[in-house]
Amino acid sequence: RTVPGEEAQFAHRRSNLGADIILAGVFQLELADPEPLTKRMQKLWIVRSASTAFDTRRVALPFVDPDGTSVDRLIGEIGLTGLREGGALLCTQNPSYLIAEDGVTSQDCVRLIDRVREQVLLQTGIDLQTNLQVW
Predict the structure, then answer these.
(1) Distance of alpha carbon 130 from alpha carbon 41, whole angstroms
(2) Which positions are catalytic?
(3) Model confidence pLDDT, tens digit, residues 19-43
(4) 3-26: buried (b, 16+ CB within 10 Å) or exposed (e) per residue?
(5) Tell me: the pLDDT tens digits for 73-131?
(6) How far is the CA of 36 from the CAs of 32, 43, 67, in angstroms?
């Protein structure tokens, strides 16, 4: 069946298509001046950078917000804010951020991510999905 974009209600990582699988897509793009978009992105970057109180060069957002709530809220509610594994820790201001300190190893990061996923699943029943692929 064909579903127009307005009907699918696409948003960041979401649509109202449920379990339907998209096999093909047709996009109608419009020519536009890139300058307003560039200015908008710069403004968003400045606002986001100003609200981040840590070194963003050594930060990752390892989890995807589950439907209906945020990773920050889940981690805060079950008391994992500031959780540490070696040189990897969850930010105290925004616990969805993983901060890598000097001397951190990839195993520190993987162990922290695994601990958070395990505790969130045990305490809330929500299986956090990751933004990262570890291989």
Answers:
(1) 25
(2) 13
(3) 888 888 888 888 889 999 899 989 8
(4) eeeeeeeeeeeeeeeeeeeeeeee
(5) 999 999 999 999 999 999 988 898 899 998 999 999 999 999 999 999 999 999 999 98
(6) 9, 11, 31
Q: Which of 65, 109, 106, 111 is nearest to 119 (CA)?
A: 111
pLDDT given at position 60: 85
Distances (CA, A) of 123 to 34, 117, 127: 46, 10, 10
* Cα–Cα distance measured from residue 122 to residue 80, given in angstroms and rounded to the nearest whole number: 13
User: Amino acid letter at 130?
Assistant: T
The number of angstroms, rounded, from the C-alpha of 42 to the middle of its chain's C-alpha atoms is: 20
